[in-house]
Every structure is written in structure tokens, then in C-alpha cells.
Design brief:
Elements: E1 4-10, H1 13-31, H2 37-56, H3 59-75, H4 85-104, H5 111-114, H6 117-126, H7 138-146, H8 149-160, H9 164-179, E2 184-188, E3 192-196, E4 205-211, E5 216-222, E6 226-233, E7 241-242, E8 247-254
Antiparallel strand pairs: 1-4, 2-8, 3-6, 4-8, 5-6, 6-7
Helix pairs in contact: 1-2, 1-9, 2-8, 3-4, 3-9, 4-9
Length: 256
């Protein structure tokens, strides 16, 4: 079976932010698999980017709204014939626990990180290219050089605990949204595909899946009423051009 690549396009600001945070959390996870100084710098850079996302948005409220919306939508399925009640009850229980964990944390997300002078000094210099170099931040250099690997990892994990509840909420939200609609086979004539969306059931996410070996990629754009997919030839030396032949692909319009 050939390997596939999935491309995603969020259709609202909430899911757009969730996907960015998912990407940043994955960067932290990857960096913390290694013991070297540069990897732990990468982990802190991604963690501070996560903190910046939360500062720019009332994101805790948005996450709470999303979990409550999912609970409402799933609860409406309880009396429908043929629904797997055991699986549904398990999902609702997981969502309820996630909601409780979010509501228990009274302080703002990442508040302890915002008040940490060491991290604040790194954030101040991060806006400058190369601004966290050893001579710019000798205290940071000291921490990286003198703290044992286990100590650095322990400290990073302690800071990341600030995001545990909200990360769990984002993870389950994206998992349910992605899994709500199966992929279907489609064809883009001359590399172009367009479809209208059901206004009564808002779509959160468009997912396009194509074989990994293809020399093209999809450009997806959309709004509340319709979306388009254009398949573009990749060329690192010039602007991508839309292909002229028909393209078979798989599509999922995720609404939950």
C-alpha cells in the first residue's frame, strides 16, 4: 500500500489556532527526545511560542466553548437507534473529565511561565535574530552548560505542566473533528476541484489525501459557503503552477 500525505485547511479561527498549537506541542515533544543543548533550546523556543499564542487570544475560553460544543453534539446522539452507546458514553466521559480539568485551573494558562524572570529574559531576546546567543544571555548559557540533562528535562516538564489540561482538550477536539467524516474518493478536473458547504452544519476542517510520490500538492482555500482545491506542481526554483491533468484524491470535509 502506497504512503499518503494528508493536507489540512481549517475553516475557522478556533481550529486554525488549535492546529498551530498542536504543531508547537509536537515540536516540544520531538526536541525533548534528545539530550543536547540545541534540542533543549528548540524545546524552550517552541514552548515560548505556545505561551505567545495564549497571550494573543482568550484561548482558555475558546477551548472551553469547543469542549462544551462537542459534548452538546455528542449528547444529541444518545437516543438515535444504532449508535454504539458504550463508545459514546466513553467519549462523553472523556470530554467531561477534560472540561473539569480545565475549569479546576483558576489561573491563566501559562501564568507561572509569564512570571518567570529567566524565561522572560529569553523571550525579550528571542525577537532578535540570534538574540539568545551565549554572550547575549550568559544565565541561559550557564543553565544549559551546568544543569545535568535530567535536571533540564525535569525543568522543561515542570513548565509544560502549565499546558497539560488545555493540550488534552485540544487533542481530543481535533481527534473527534478529524474522525467525524471518513475520506471519500474524488477527482479534480484539470487539477481543480470546488464544492459548496452545508450552512446548516458548519465544516471545521478540510482534509485532502494524496499519494506521497506525486509531484504536486494541493492548495486549499475556503470559507463558510464553499471551498476550492488546486493541485500545483512543486518547483523549488519558481512559482508553482496548476497542473493540467485530472487528479484522483481523497477528501474529508470534517464537521462535528
Amino acid at each position: 500500500m502506497s504512503t499518503t500525505i494528508t493536507y489540512e485547511q481549517p475553516l475557522n479561527e478556533r481550529i486554525r489556532t488549535f492546529l498551530r498549537l498542536e504543531f508547537l506541542f509536537a515540536r516540544v515533544d520531538k526536541a525533548m527526545q534528545f539530550d543536547d543543548e540545541l534540542s533543549h533550546r528548540d524545546a524552550i523556543d517552541a514552548m515560548l511560542d505556545i505561551l505567545s499564542v495564549f497571550e494573543r487570544n482568550d484561548l482558555k475560553a475558546e477551548v472551553l466553548k469547543e469542549i462544551e460544543r462537542l459534548i452538546t453534539n455528542l449528547s444529541a446522539l444518545e437516543n438515535i437507534a444504532g449508535v454504539n452507546r458504550s463508545a459514546l458514553d466513553e467519549l462523553l466521559s472523556e470530554l467531561d473529565q477534560t472540561l473539569d480539568a480545565l475549569q479546576l485551573r483558576k489561573s491563566g494558562v501559562g501564568q507561572a511561565l509569564k512570571e518567570n524572570d529567566f524565561l522572560y529574559s529569553i523571550r525579550q531576546r528571542s525577537s532578535i535574530a540570534g538574540g539568545t546567543c551565549d554572550f547575549d544571555l550568559p544565565a541561559y548559557h550557564y543553565w544549559l552548560q551546568h544543569t545535568p540533562v535530567e535536571g533540564r528535562i525535569h525543568q522543561l516538564q515542570y513548565w509544560l505542566e502549565q499546558f497539560v489540561a488545555v493540550r488534552a482538550a485540544i487533542d481530543i477536539s481535533l481527534r473527534l473533528i478529524r474522525g467525524a467524516t471518513p475520506f471519500a474518493d474524488m477527482q479534480a478536473e484539470a487539477g481543480f476541484f470546488q464544492r459548496s458547504l452545508d450552512g446548516n452544519q458548519p465544516t471545521q476542517l478540510i482534509r485532502v489525501q494524496i499519494p506521497a510520490e506525486t509531484p504536486y500538492f494541493p492548495e486549499i482555500s475556503g470559507g463558510k459557503h464553499r471551498f476550492t482545491v488546486r493541485f500545483m506542481l512543486f518547483d523549488i526554483n519558481q512559482r508553482p503552477q496548476q497542473i493540467s491533468e485530472d487528479v484522483a484524491f481523497r477528501l474529508s470535509c470534517c464537521s462535528m
